Amino acid sequence: MDEAAARADQAAGGARVDEAGAARMDQVAGAVADPVRRQILVLLRDGPLPAGDIAERFAISRPAVSRHLRVLRQSGLVRAELVGRQRLYTLDPEPFGELITWLARFARPTGWEHRFDALETEVYRTRRERRTTRDASHGVAGQENTA
């Protein structure tokens, strides 16, 4: 990320991402850009799988699945471990962190989050109205009317 882009990012309210962080985030975004790789990540969410089991679930060739697994491994999203004669692939969600943080800046509250925000706003408004009504019934700004 060049200096101007970093300043623009900060001005937009974002956390500064150093060059290494930006490169990692680009690599992760590139890895999840492909639908086959996203499916592999979903499969690995439930636990480690051998390469052969992963390849059987796709209508593409085993070498093509191997290339997808290599991209996922290079991005750090999966780890490969040789167990006997099998290569087991395991999901490592940690590299998603920077990308998730960056994407969260564009998300707006939806569903329950939005409703809780609306409820909080209503509670504050009601408190303010009650305080104003109470102050008005007691005379001058918070002093009790004794007359």
Please explain how this structure is put together.
The chain is mainly alpha-helical. The protein is 61% helix and 10% strand. The chain has 7 helices and 3 strands; from the N terminus they run H-H-H-E-H-H-E-E-H-H. The chain has helices at residues 3-11, 19-32, 35-44, 51-56, 62-75, 96-104, 111-137, and strands at 49-50, 78-83, 86-91. Strands 1-3-2 form a 3-stranded antiparallel sheet. Strand 2 (78-83) and strand 3 (86-91) form a beta hairpin. The radius of gyration is 27 Å and the shape is elongated. The chain starts with a helix and ends in a 10-residue tail after the last helix.
Task: Give me a quick take on this structure.
It contains seven helices and three strands, in the order αααβααββαα.
Count of individual beta strands: 3
Helix % is: 55-70%
Q: What structural class do the secondary elements suggest?
A: mainly alpha
Radius of gyration: 27 Å
Oligomer: single chain
- Discrete helix count: 7
* Mean pLDDT figure: 84
Low-confidence runs (pLDDT<50, min 5 residues)?
A: 4-8
Please tell me what the overall shape is: elongated
* Distance separating the two termini: 70 Å
Give the biggest sheet: 3 strands, antiparallel
- H-E order: HHHEHHEEHH
> Order of strands side by side in the largest beta sheet?
1-3-2
Tell me the strand percentage band.
5-15%
